[in-house]
Amino acid sequence: MPAGERMSDDLTDAARSPAARAVPSGRLVRLGHFGRLAGGVAGGMLAEGARRLANGDRPRMRDMLLTPGNVGRIADRLSHLRGAAMKLGQMISMDAGDMLPPELAEILARLRQNAHRMPPQQLQQVLALQWGKDWRNRFARFNAAPIAAASIGQVHRATTHDGRELAIKVQYPGVRESIDADVDNVATLLRVSGLLPPELDIAPLLRSAKEQLREEADYIREGEQMTLFHRLLSDAPGYVVPILDTEFTTQSVLAMSFIDGSPIESLVDAPQVTRDAAMCALISLVLQELFEFGVMQTDPNFANYRYQPETGRLVLLDFGASRPVARATSEGYRELLGAAIDGNRDRVREAALATGFIGAGAIANHRRKIDRMIDIVIGELNRPEVFDFGDRGFIEVLRDQGMDVAADQAAWHIPPADLLFVQRKISGTALLAARLKGRVDVRTLLDRYVNPTA
Predict the structure, then answer these.
(1) For every one of its 454 residues, what pLDDT tens digit does the chain have, with 9 covering 90 and above?
(2) Kind of pairing, strands 239-240 and 313-316?
(3) How far apart are CA 340 and CA 343, in angstroms?
(4) CB within 8 Å of 441: residues ≥ 6 apart
(5) What SS3 state is found at 164?
């Protein structure tokens, strides 16, 4: 069958998918979606408030806002918008992990799961703009149904006439142009919801989020970062990094060698030794990025990792969030971890303040609670046996102590952006380890970088 006929069949199959949903690409159109979201949420709040008043209750703003209906409205609208709106929600969910209020955690969990894709007509328009109208003739096979769909783009499998098997990531239209407005709109949504204190200055964090999202939307840059990691890990047999295909790569389309693998979450039912080995490899990679490479892929989304059961190797994907690690950040972590391994509470507190993990106001007003949290971390890090990520009991204690501190406005503090991006990778890796119930000798891995004479 000719390539054009196979393409037509693929497009027909993709059109039947209920998950296909056009991405709003114009700024005014996207602003309208945020307006409709605000209107829908406001209507839901009025209905909930009236219901509670009729029952003789005095409704609180938070209770009226975070109803199941409103949670669904927010998650669905941000999923439809994709781009920076959806990506920012995913970033917050990976950063905060177990520390989020349950209602907000539900919204963000839905954003990680929802993945609408472009309908075939919109995909055709995007690729014709990037490759020309005759782009179909450049492939022996192009599967129009994506094998993956995320916040900024969707991935298709293709075969060239000379037999190259490719994975091709196509950026949603309008993503790059709408980053600033989307981030500002999401921030406003969080403000008016009461989920962010109005006194907290998040402007530096918003600037950093916009900068990183612009970098992630530049597929030429991502291809360069992917090539860098391929070189850095060329002698590491436990990892596989795709090879950039420059023929089909543009600023909005990223082409790379197709590498098969299973979702990393599929290991949840694997033998304990398999789960442990996979998490040991991922944690080792994080430490290499932080202390050796000087560059880190800071997006720990589970979809960025795949596993090859036949070889035990980890497939690493999506390098758009790769960024340099400042020497001061690396050394700050080295001092913080070294102090914790030494069991020196005062030194840990001083290192946390110096690196920007916590602010002076929190220490001045809540030193006992912070010291309690430090003692928990020291105890967990210095366990004589391997660290069991499936044992999350200590997280509840840390959450309770942290919420008490956060209730004090004088303790509010946003760490430096560079630190947040690194901590995002560390926290997300720990969440994956918890999901897989991995058991890893973290102390031995750390000693290589923090206490090399051990």
Answers:
(1) 444 444 444 443 443 443 555 544 444 444 444 444 444 444 443 444 444 444 555 444 444 344 545 455 555 555 544 445 455 554 444 444 444 445 555 555 555 444 567 888 999 999 999 999 999 999 999 999 999 877 788 999 999 999 999 999 999 888 888 788 777 776 776 666 555 556 666 777 778 878 888 898 999 999 999 999 999 999 999 999 999 999 999 999 999 999 999 999 999 999 999 999 999 999 999 999 999 999 999 988 888 999 999 999 999 999 999 999 999 999 999 999 999 999 999 999 999 999 988 888 889 888 999 999 999 999 988 888 899 998 877 777 777 777 777 777 677 777 888 888 898 899 889 989 999 999 999 999 999 998 766 5
(2) parallel
(3) 5
(4) 280, 386, 387
(5) coil
Pairing mode of beta strands 153-160, 239-240: unpaired
Name residue 19's amino acid.
Answer: A
φ/ψ of 356, rounded to 5, equals 100, 10
User: CA angle, 99 as apex, 201 and 62 as ends, to 5°?
Assistant: 70
Which amino acid makes up residue 451?
A: N
Which residue shows structure tokens 């022996």?
140
Count of beta carbons in the 10 Å neighbourhood of residue 363: 17
- CA dihedral sign, ordered 213, 219, 225, 229: positive
Reported as half-sphere exposure (CB side, CA atoms, 13 A), residue 12 has a value of: 6
Q: What's the CA gap between 253 and 138, in Å, rounded?
A: 15
**What tokens were used for 291?**
């202390």
Structure tokens given for 272: 């304990």
Q: Which residues of 123-159 are buried (b: 16+ CB within 10 A; e: fewer)?
A: bbebbeebeeeebbeebeebbbbbebbbbbbbbbbbb
Q: Which of 244, 269, 265 is nearest to 307 (CA)?
A: 265
Token pair for residue 102?
Answer: 């349950």
In Å, what is the CA distance from 434 to each residue of 245, 330, 391? 35, 24, 8
- Active-site amino acid positions: 299
Among candidates 312, 332, 286, 258, which has minimal Cα distance to 432? 286
Neighbours of 77 (CB within 10 A): 19
- Using DSSP's 3-state secondary structure scheme, residue 262 falls into strand
